[in-house]
Amino acid sequence: MNNNNQEIYLKKEVLERIVRAFFSHDFKESARLIPFDMRPKGAEVLCRCCIYKERAVLKDCVIAGLGFAIEDDCETVDLSKYVERSLERGRPEDNPLTVIEAACKGCVPSRIYVTNLCQGCVANLCRKACKFGAIDIIGGKSVIDGSKCKNCKMCIEVCPYNAIVKIAVPCEDSCPVDAIKKNVKGTAQIDYKICIYCGKCIMSCPFGAVHEKSQIIDVLKNIVSCKKVIALIAPSIVGQFPGNVYQLKSAIIKAGFSNAYEVAQGADTAAVNEAKEFEKKMESSGSIMTTSCCASYNQFIKKHLPEIGTFVSDTKTPLYYIAGKVKAKHNDALTVFIGPCIAKKNEVLENSNIDYVINYEELAALFNAKDIKVQDCKEEKFDIESSRQGRGFCITGGVVAAVSKVLETKDLAKLYIINGLNKEAIRQLKRIVKDQKCAEGNLIEVMGCEGGCIGGNATVCIPKVSIKAVKALSEQSKDITEK
Fold first, then answer.
1. Parallel/antiparallel/unpaired status of strands 210-212 and 97-99
2. 0.85 exceeded by pTM
């Protein structure tokens, strides 16, 4: 399993218990008892200070699983009230992230720190290496002035005793745009005005303090009310569950969905449109074009680097195209995107053709709660088979490979890949804007997650296993030019 640790297991167990509670004879009471069922009287508590703190955290996990912001929670409000609100809700809440204050450790500030291992050596290599004058020798020991330190880590590299360390705050360090900081209480707080919904804070926090607000109840209540609910499954779903993609379609229908379509079909459309656009840009003396299929990257452009917009493809995402086709064919249906990350929830807010989003963790919870084993389901083919390139969109390099495959001028594109949005990648993108060109290539793929969509925050399979499965399916598929 991806992120194979206790915190992930807890989150998955909460989601599964919520789904089981939904299908029980008394949803409200079953949901209310989840924290007590998971931590009954006398249960061993391994990480928190006491069983009551553990139950408080689990209650907040259930609130997020029901689709609500924990920041708005009143401790005296019973979980059964949240169940009522989830059933009455017309649409999911905005801002898909929420922070469990009770779970947040309130980590010490991130900084470069001189430990007691410092020997006060005569060489003073750390002081000499610092270009900002942040290190002094006081009482025979090195001392860092935090107001001058730029976190360049040169002192760490030169210290012969490894006495200087970087004290890391996982959620803050992982955020490429510094959208998560400590509030006045010392716990994590997300600035949604600059957040790009990359999900890195969810993956990095070892206390499970950052959660995604689930839409699983919104989906289930429409399914049980006998509405036509159609699943749109992302290419990265291949390999996430035992069994093949055709068995997975059958399992999704068995879980209550009316039908399932591959978003890879939309990737085929996106590749063709992006190739045409790239050729036009290059013909009109354009220097570069970046891809536009990653929702997190699109949020980054919008909030942090709008100047790069002239170089970004105007082509819509694969989800945009397949959702439009499905809604045109089934205008009475509700569409649910099933994907690997949180970023798509913001994209969906801007697209009326997509009603809800759930991730692979939530789909796994649904399968487990209904005792559906994908590998035991019969195979069910898709109405239209996606191409080899469309199915490979989810792996690093897959997007530019698909676009270059359908270019009329085969040697026109010089491919370059920015593998995941991190601070170094952002500096690289800013250099591209400044120089108005990229020496490494003219067709640039930018994905928010390292490895591509198979590295999303809500995947349930380690990337190397997922990559192998995606490539195996792709090899069985036709080329996009043969469709």
1. antiparallel
2. yes
